[in-house]
Amino acid sequence: MRRSTAAVFGTLAGVGMIFGVRMAAPTQIVPVAEDAAAEAPADAPAEPDQDDAGGAQPDDEGDAPADGDAPADGGGAGGLTDGEFRGTGSKYAYGTIQVTITVEDGKVSAADATYPTGGDSATINPPAIEKLNESALTAESGDDVDAVSGATLTTEAYRKSLQAALDKAAG
Amino acid sequence: MGTAVSIELAADRPAPELRALIGDVCGWLHEVDARFSTYKQDSEVSRMRRGELTSTGCHPDLRHVLGACADLWRATDGYFDAYYGGVLDPSGYVKGWAVAEASQRLVDAGCPTHFISAGGDIAARGDRVWRVGVRHPWDETKVAWKLAVRDAAVATSGTYERGGHVINPRTGKPARFLRSVTVTGPDLTLADAYATAALAMDRDGLRYLEKLATDGYESAAVTEDGRAFTTPGLPVAT
């Protein structure tokens, strides 16, 4: 069995993975973010929020927008309509997220999310975790593993250290 | 920004062929970087941010990523969001996906048994057991678990390298309950997204991980106060 190992030092776009999860915006709003400005989602268009809260569509059943059309994949070019738009509520384990965006000059200028304030939202501590095993954290040597999975290291110090190691390995 | 990628091929083939395969994988990863980098001003993602490129005019790979990010937004109840603040940043999806695609390329090239590791994302493929350590969240020289996986993915998200950069969308504050989440299962892109989403959920993340186990994604998590949680089916190495 032949083996070949290569360490590649490069710049992989995904290094910022931790930035991938941040403030939620409803699906409907996703495609109108400034760069993808053109796309209007086909499955669940946000309704202009006229002078009342009528745009709100709390969804007790928690239906996510219909599957199929990925909002960012909607195609068609065209500008956004200025105004305030409210996404339909999106229900999850403990409540509903609803996001309102403001469009100015065809681009999203603000986004605001609201969360439930009563009832089911009052859950702070989840029910007991029955299906997960809890134990003390252990620390072992990783000498006998093929690789280690850990949060992405992106510091310059790491980069330099790695380069040095590669230079040494090449050397 | 740099990420180290290590590739190991286990195939009874001449060294030049193996080197060519690795070269192909590296070429693919550089292609991904050129297209998806949020740091390179001429990448398609950067051009899309500036409104110079639409989803109809971009490369099919970018269209795929945008669609996948939207699906994940739904699948994670909004915890996975590539449009935070209205600015496109699909990086949270791209790395896992790029590695998964690279792995598939190797399979297609007749090299089904291989291992690719890029940061927290690992594709461990083929008919052999690979041993994967899960980094100890306070001691980078140690591992908290050793997993034995066969034809599976392992992905870890943690707050320990960037410190509180994962925002819990329900609170608007950095997620701090979980310090490290590792998810292993059949699909690397999903495992990666699930791990990051669980981290963002704070306490709810544990319940989320519990549910993921029913979909075939086992996990290990460490809380900020040092407690360790694992799903019963986690493939711990013996």
From TrEMBL, chain A:
Which species is this record about?
Catenuloplanes niger
State the protein's name: Uncharacterized protein with FMN-binding domain
Q: Which SMART domains match?
A: FMN_bind
Q: Name one GO molecular function term.
A: FMN binding
- List, for all copies, the residue spans of the domain called FMN-binding: 93-169
Q: Which domain of life is it from?
A: Bacteria
Pfam families hit by this protein? FMN_bind (PF04205)
Q: Which GO terms describe its cellular component?
A: membrane
Taxonomy-wise, where does this protein's organism fall, top ranks first? Answer: Bacteria, Bacillati, Actinomycetota, Actinomycetes, Micromonosporales
Composition bias (Acidic residues) maps to 46-66
Keywords attached to this Swiss-Prot or TrEMBL record, sorted alphabetically, are: Signal
Extract the signal peptide range: 1-24
- UniProt cross-references to InterPro entries, sorted A to Z: FMN-bd
| Region span, Disordered | 34-85
Renumbered to this chain, the Low complexity biased-composition regions fall at 34-45
